[in-house]
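Table S4 entry, DUF8021 domain-containing protein.
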Amino acid sequence: MATALVAATLASQQASAQIGAECDRECLIGMMDAYFDALETHDSGRLTLSNDIKYTENGVTLALTDGLWNTVQAQPSYRFDVADPVNGEVAALAIINENGNQNNMSIRLRVENRRITEIENLVVRNITSGGSAGAFVTVERTEVLPIFNRIEPEDTRVPRHKLQEAADRYFRGIESEVTAGATPFHPDCQRMENNSWTANSPDGGSNEMAKLDCAAQFDTGFQTIVTNIRARRFPVIDEERQLVYALGFFDHAGTVPAYAEPSGEAQAASGAFAQPFSFIIAEVFKLEDGKLRQIEAVLTTVPYGMPSGW
């Protein structure tokens, strides 16, 4: 059994290496360039696609003539790419213009033999998702935070499996309601969601939770409001930049009567948190010295328990 498992693992690594040899980082970023060009012109025919191409938007399988393909009006005003030549995948977090609406989105492309075989979009369509107490500070920006594109010194990097493990420990920490001590947070960890600071906010704002750093937030126990994190995937990993692009669902069963405020006082669950719903989420983690230093996410509400489509 062990021999078979090792053989299967080696075969998987060899297959990934073959995919990576066909399309390096520059090639993958070029595929994302072509994708946005095709979206802007509403013409998927401009892309080099496999015959069995699969496309989803917020977990729903669509034709390449539907959804975003009819509504995108321009190139993204903000775009942050993560490329993984080993796995043959590239992802982006972006802000796009959909008929005048500035919407946050995530895109994942899988490339084999220089053809796109999978397209997975997550779009936040300016529909109030509710649930967060207080006002977050939304940042107007066009530039990616420099830390994300920084290539880390080789002697400070951790390998692929450790990068994935760190990202998964973040999810496990939320799901299991552990304290920050079990999650590898960097002391300067910050988080941004849908272009708003939600942890260690440099801009203040009226949301007390957003002023806390990542570890301090975990130590309040606020994460009890999330009852399950499922369908976790880690399809794009950049070892040079120590980045992990992850996908999954944050389920809220509506069964938690209260959650913690930064003061430690209990806040009764109300509104969205008093009923079942899920967030579909795409999240990028930047590690520094093996610890979670910067987090950026795109998420939107979907029906409770909805499958990913993948």
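Confidence is low (pLDDT under 50) at residues 1-13, 128-137.
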